[in-house]
Amino acid sequence: ELYKAYQAGTLHLRSFYLTLVFGFGTAFALPLILAGCLVKERVPYEDRRSAFSAATFVKPLRVRAFRQLLILYICQAVTLDIVSAEVGYYAYYVVPGMDPTVFLGAFLGVQLLAFPVLNAVVNKVSKTKIYRFGLPLSIVGSLCIAFYPAGFPAIGVYALTFLTALGFAGAQTMCWIIFPDVVDIGELGLGERNIGSFSGVMTFVRKSSYALASLMMGIAMSAAGFVVPPETGALPAQPAAVVTSFRLFM
After folding, report:
1. Which has the closest alpha carbon to 174: 99, 235, 121, 245?
2. Which end of the chain is more exposed for a tag (fewer CB within 10 A), N or C?
3. Residue ranges with strand state E in the chain
C-alpha cells in the first residue's frame, strides 16, 4: 500500500523512506530490545562485567571449524540478500507482471514446509550433507529464472522459485543448527565459551558482506546505464545491458 501511494504521487519519497525505516525498524527492533531486557538465563552464569575488546570479538576466527561455518553462512545468506534486493527490478523490467512479494513469499513458505522434514533427518544425516544436498536443484532453478523469457506467464517464475527454494532450504536452515556444534569446538580449542563473540562475528560479517554486495550491484547497474526512475510517474524503459545485468544478478 505504501508503494502504491508513492506511485500514485500521494506519498513523497522522503516520507516513504522514513515510514519504512522507523515503522518497520521499530517493529523489528522492539521485540529484540524487550527480549534482552526481560528474558532471564535458564542456567547460572558468572555475574561480572567485561569491557569490549576487539581481540575478544575476533577470537572465534582462530577456530578453523568456525571459519568454515562462516563461509557456508555467508554464501547462502548474501545470495538470498542479493536476490531479495534485486527481485523488484527483475519483476518490473525483466518479467513484467510478476509479483516480487509472491516470489519472496515462496522462499519463506518453502522454509516453513521443509523445516519439519529437515528436523527429522538432522540427527540421522550429516548436517553438511543436508546443507549441500539440494544446491544443484537451486542452481538449475536460478539459471532458469535468470533466463526466463520476458513474454512468458509469471506463473512459470513462481514454479521455478518454488523449486529453487526447495533446493536452497537445507543451506538456509543448517548454518544456525551447526552453530552450537562449532561453539563446542571453540570451547575446546579456546578454553572458554563465548557464544556472543561467535554469533556477533557471524552477524557482523553477514551485514558487511551484504553492504559490499549492494554497493557492487549499484556500481554494476550504473555502469550498465541504469535510468533512475522519477519520483512520480511511469517507470522508464531500461537499456538492454541493464536488463541483462538484472538477469545476471539472479
Report:
1. 121
2. N
3. none
